[in-house]
Amino acid sequence: MKTTIRVLGLGVALAAGLAMSLPSYAATTLRIGTVLAPDDPMGRGLEKFKAEVEEATKGEVRIQVFHSSQLGDTTEMIDQARAGANVGTVTDVARLSSFVPSLAVMSAPFLFDTFEQADKFALSEDYLSWGDTLKEKSGLVMLASNWYQGPRHALTQVPVSKPADLSGIRMRTIGAPVWIETIRAMGAEPTPIAWGEVYSALQMGVIDAAEAQPTAIKGAKLYEVIKHVTKTGHIQLVTALVVSAESWDQISADNQKIVRDLAVENGRYASGLTIELGEKALADVAASGVTISEVDLAPFKKAVAGVYELLDLNKEVAIVNRVLGR
């Protein structure tokens, strides 16, 4: 009898020890912010992502979505996430190139012609390996990089038909080297400021111009403070959904796979909305009185041709072309 009790006691102790040695995953909430309006395709994609993640993980992973810069500008949200705060965001990938320089290629001028090309490359082994390096270098986890926001066009107060027309014009752009050098090569003076400040900066004349995708032009009501949209499409804005590594590591491996898969799936959903609503957004902008112009892209492509070499991206461009089979 005593032997039986000792054996049972040993079993209980072993079970308790084993339980203590296994990782414990409590419910985790991911707070994801965006600078864009709730009705923007990215905002709608995030709301769908939230619902599907919570259902698929049975509430073990919860998502809170914050629109219209409620958690700050994109750079501020990235800084919060890196500091360990439970924050994530949808960001242009070039902002992450300070940690992994190769990532800048996702915003290289005139490199991707369609969303399908960007989506294919974002799931390639080469690109995913850069994502692994990002976690090591920055404390950020990239869930998916196929959240397409559309082609960036020039928004000005004067007509533009060639790079020389942008000479001396202060144009708001994203504060990453590939964006800055692209805008400079196109002829304008790159002026990085927060997205939430673009409307007032244009209104007050702090900047002369901006560049943005069709749905964002409409969502931010920039048609009220500009006169011309020139369809340069100089950069295809492919963005990534990133979260704090500290928060991510609190999620079980099974749930991490669910979240990643749904991030890719809903990136495609949001991208589809971007494509569907983009032309309608431009039509609405035109109806407001803004002039929408097609332009010969050859002079602009020639003007930015040196950006790849300037930023040492020739190797990455070759990788993109190999993956896309061109």
Layout of helices and strands, plus pairs?
Layout: H1 2-21, E1 28-33, H2 41-56, E2 61-66, H3 74-82, E3 87-92, H4 115-122, H5 125-138, E4 140-151, E5 153-156, E6 170-173, H6 177-185, E7 189-192, H7 198-204, E8 210-212, H8 214-219, E9 228-230, E10 236-244, H9 245-248, H10 253-287, E11 291-293, H11 298-304, H12 307-310, H13 314-323
Parallel strand pairs: 1-2, 1-3, 6-7, 9-11
Antiparallel strand pairs: 3-10, 4-10, 5-8, 5-9
Helix pairs in contact: 2-10
Structural features, described:
The N terminus is likely disordered. It contains 13 helices and eleven strands. By secondary structure, it is an alpha/beta fold.
In short:
With 326 residues, this protein is of the alpha/beta class. Helices cover 46% and strands 18% of the residues.
